[in-house]
């Protein structure tokens, strides 16, 4: 059977994490596309970009971690080679135990073959100085690829695509009607609530704030976690986060947010620092904590890729390809991520 030639062009609306990973998946398939970049994305620009395969609260693996983490590692490695840039930190996460029970639970899970690739007990030499990070019950170490520099990912990807004759329109997408010969991939984050085709999707925007601090005391090049993260960026700079607020709908920084982060940091650390940056964003989260993929039930050329949430750096690459396979090859979407799960 001879496949008919695809006559439709592709437009991606939104240049945050979702738009960027989807662009790469289209590029890998030799699909031509253009991108609407409103230059107003706050979330990806202020995200820590952390890849964490573990849910510390229940000490379980993140959803689909065994599939998503190795896929993400290969995806970003491939792009690093194409862009000739280091995007991934390749650093570990050190979990400060809050109790003897947590320490025992960690030890038990370490003996479970399902967790052995992720969990370790660090040596004393690996851990941050006890003078500056208090860990009376010990620490655990999570093996992961670390974090992705999301700003560098967006900026260098955009330059690469433009150099390969892919058009970027630096304005807000305002079309009232959709052209029949174009596929529209909506990767708008929380702006989807204003999208006439997908405004009824149950997105649950979450306001979050982080700080960037400088300290001459702490010399630790990995991430420390205890009900928050303290993530090394470069030199003597660290990112501290994050807050969760379901009332604020604007990406504004607040004094309450700053104090909350400082108080939580002081609960398990003791070092001098100065705040050099305070940022805020609105995360596109979903109540069931699963991304939202799919084609509009009536407008068949309107496609959504959204709801990547707090683990978007790990989730995004695989499900961007899954969506592309659905659109171009007819692959059935997983029921957990298909927007049809919201249809009554």
Explain what you see.
By secondary structure, the chain is an alpha/beta fold. 26% of the residues lie in helices and 24% in strands. The protein has 7 helices and 18 strands. An 8-stranded mixed beta sheet has the order 7-8-6-13-14-15-12-16, sandwiched between helices. It has a 6-stranded mixed beta sheet with strand order 10-2-1-11-18-17, covered by helices on one side. The longest helix is centred in the N-terminal third of the chain and has 19 residues. It starts with 8 loop residues before the first strand and ends in a 15-residue tail after the last helix. The mean pLDDT is 93.
In short:
This protein has 344 residues and is of the alpha/beta class. The chain has helices at 17-28, 43-46, 65-83, 100-110, 150-163, 255-266, 312-329, and strands spanning 9-13, 33-36, 50-51, 54-55, 60-61, 93-96, 119-120, 139-142, 146-147, 168-169, 182-186, 203-214, 223-225, 229-234, 237-241, 274-286, 292-295, 302-306.
Question: In angstroms, what separates the terminal alpha carbons?
Answer: 38 Å
- Sheet-strand content, in percent, reads 15-25%
Major β-sheet strand ordering: 7-8-6-13-14-15-12-16
Order of helices and strands: EHEHEEEHEHEEEHEEEEEEHEEEH
Main beta sheet: 8 strands, mixed
Q: Helix amount, in percent?
A: 25-40%
Number of helices: 7
Radius of gyration: 21 Å
Number of strands: 18
User: Uncertain spans, ≥5 residues at pLDDT below 50?
Assistant: none
Mean pLDDT: 93
Shape: globular
Structural class: alpha/beta
